[in-house]
């Protein structure tokens, strides 16, 4: 057994299942998409013609694509910052609770176990103009809610549903970060007559900056890719494309419209955009992180 552990092939054997899964379900489709982006194919995949950068030029020249890109940016950063801010506030409050703390933490973590499509359906019923409870409450204060006709309300709906789905993930990390902060630092600041807000902004929040940076990257990736199920279950990209994000447009053009070349080019552009945003975050945001 000891001889087996020292064999150089042992680590590769242990990593083989995960490497196979990543290769089959991530790298292979990614390489296929990159290759397909340079071709025009028929809907059945029986023939194709090499066109170079034609698909990319066509996509980038579409006003609809640029509008979708702007919607995606607004949606993604609203979800990322909203989910982080809400989770941080809940983590701070939960960290102060003594009696029944485990119960509160369990209920706050539960939404992460809900599938994105299920989360979308739940919020769809809450805001349904005919059957929902919240539209009745909003009408009582003079707000006419109908996300089926109002694009801004539809975008707000998918943002709220996506924030609710992701905030539990952020809550776990923020709570762990808060519990790792030495209490002696906060007690010393309190003895120096620093108020709760000053203690939070000068001690707690700077010490949470590594966690916040990690969550910012993860939440942006989540908003770009993993919110497809939520959008599809609530608004299906409507009304009038007001909630159509880049990942949803890839689905519409590829699976619905059967424009495989354009869909592949959009998926490549989407990977590039997310990669560039991640590099920007590491280059500029990480400088303010205090390790």
Automatic annotation (TrEMBL):
It comes from the Bacteria. Coiled coil: none annotated. It is found in: Cell inner membrane; Cell membrane. The keyword Membrane applies. One of its GO terms (cellular component) is plasma membrane. Its main location: membrane. GO terms for biological process: transmembrane transport. InterPro entries: MetI-like, MetI-like_sf, UgpAE/MalFG_permease. The keyword Cytoplasm does not apply. Keywords: Cell inner membrane, Cell membrane, Membrane, Transmembrane, Transmembrane helix, Transport. It is a multi-pass membrane protein. The chain crosses the membrane at residues 12-31, 69-94, 106-126, 154-178, 199-225, 264-285. Residues 69-281 form the ABC transmembrane type-1 domain. Belongs to the binding-protein-dependent transport system permease family. UgpAE subfamily. PANTHER family: BLL4140 PROTEIN (PTHR43227), SN-GLYCEROL-3-PHOSPHATE TRANSPORT SYSTEM PERMEASE PROTEIN UGPA (PTHR43227:SF9). NCBIfam families: PRK10561.1. The complex is composed of two ATP-binding proteins (UgpC), two transmembrane proteins (UgpA and UgpE) and a solute-binding protein (UgpB). This is sn-glycerol-3-phosphate transport system permease protein UgpA.
């Amino acid at each position: 057994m000891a001889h087996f552990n020292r064999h150089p092939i042992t680590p590769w054997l242990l990593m083989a299942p995960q490497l196979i899964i990543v290769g089959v379900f991530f790298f292979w489709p990614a390489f296929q998409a990159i290759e397909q982006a340079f071709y025009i194919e028929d809907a059945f995949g029986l023939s194709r013609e090499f066109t170079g950068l034609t698909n990319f030029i066509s996509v980038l020249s579409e006003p609809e694509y640029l509008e979708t890109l702007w919607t995606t940016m607004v949606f993604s950063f609203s979800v990322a910052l909203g989910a982080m801010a809400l989770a941080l506030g809940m983590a701070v409050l939960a960290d102060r609770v003594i009696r029944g703390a485990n119960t509160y933490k369990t209920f706050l973590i539960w939404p992460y176990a809900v599938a994105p499509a299920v989360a979308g359906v739940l919020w769809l019923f809450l805001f349904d103009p005919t059957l929902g409870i919240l539209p009745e409450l909003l009408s009582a204060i003079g707000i006419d809610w109908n996300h089926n006709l109002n694009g801004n309300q539809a975008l707000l709906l998918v943002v709220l549903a996506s924030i609710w789905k992701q905030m539990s993930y952020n809550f776990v990390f923020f709570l762990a970060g808060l519990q790792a902060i030495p209490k002696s630092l906060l007690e010393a600041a309190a003895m120096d007559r620093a108020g709760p807000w000053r203690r939070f902004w000068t001690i707690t929040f700077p010490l949470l900056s590594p966690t916040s940076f990690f969550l910012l990257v993860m939440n942006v990736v989540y908003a770009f890719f993993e919110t497809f199920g939520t959008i599809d279950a609530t608004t299906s990209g409507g009304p009038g494309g007001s909630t159509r994000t880049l990942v949803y447009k890839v689905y519409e053009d590829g699976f619905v419209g059967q424009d495989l070349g354009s869909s592949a080019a959009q998926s490549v552009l989407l990977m590039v955009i997310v990669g560039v945003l991640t590099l920007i975050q590491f280059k500029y945001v990480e400088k303010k992180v205090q390790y």
